[in-house]
Every structure is written in structure tokens, then in C-alpha cells.
Design goal:
mainly alpha
């Protein structure tokens, strides 16, 4: 259970959006390597930011897959990645993270 009083840090959104995008691309080894890196710990320095990022990742991925299911498979995963990138552009306004 998350107990946040304010908004997450920008880096938390950046990491979450990128990891959700990579999960939609099925880049599991890249995700695993990043989550074990010093960069991950630098961007998400404490348990609260890590849990928040995980929550955002699950929300984005689950929402994209639910949308695909609701559309009865009319969209491929690559289309959902493009949709996720548009959400990322609106949310981060040029502060994307790429692994």
C-alpha cells in the first residue's frame, strides 16, 4: 500500500513510463538489467519512489492491454506502444527516459 502525501518525483514518472513502454515491447532482459543497475537506484532512491513507479507501470500496461481487449484485438502491441509514447509525451513534456 502506498502512502504518498504529494506527487511523485519527475524521475519516478520517467522510469515508470519507460519501463511500461519496454514491457509492452517485451524487452524483459533490458528491464531486468536496468532494475539491477546503479542508474535505477539513482533515479528511484527510496522504497516509496520504487513502489510508486511499479504502481504506475502496472496501471499503464494493464490499461493498454484492457484497451486492446476492449477493441477486440484491432490494435497490435506496437500500436499500444505508440499510444503509450503519446501519453508519455503529454505527461513528461520532453523529459523522456530511454534505456
Amino acid at each position: 500500500m502506498l502512502s504518498r502525501l504529494g506527487r511523485p518525483e519527475l524521475d519516478t514518472y520517467r522510469v515508470a513510463c519507460e519501463l511500461a513502454r519496454e514491457e509492452m515491447l517485451r524487452e524483459y532482459e533490458l528491464i531486468d538489467r536496468f532494475c539491477r543497475s546503479d542508474e535505477y537506484r539513482r533515479l528511484l532512491p527510496n522504497e516509496l519512489e520504487q513502489q510508486t513507479a511499479h504502481f504506475i507501470i502496472r496501471y499503464l500496461v494493464d490499461s493498454a492491454l484492457a484497451f486492446q481487449e476492449h477493441a477486440q484485438g484491432k490494435f497490435r502491441r506496437r500500436d499500444l506502444v505508440t499510444l503509450m509514447e503519446k501519453v508519455e509525451d503529454r505527461l513528461l513534456r520532453g523529459y523522456r527516459l530511454r534505456l
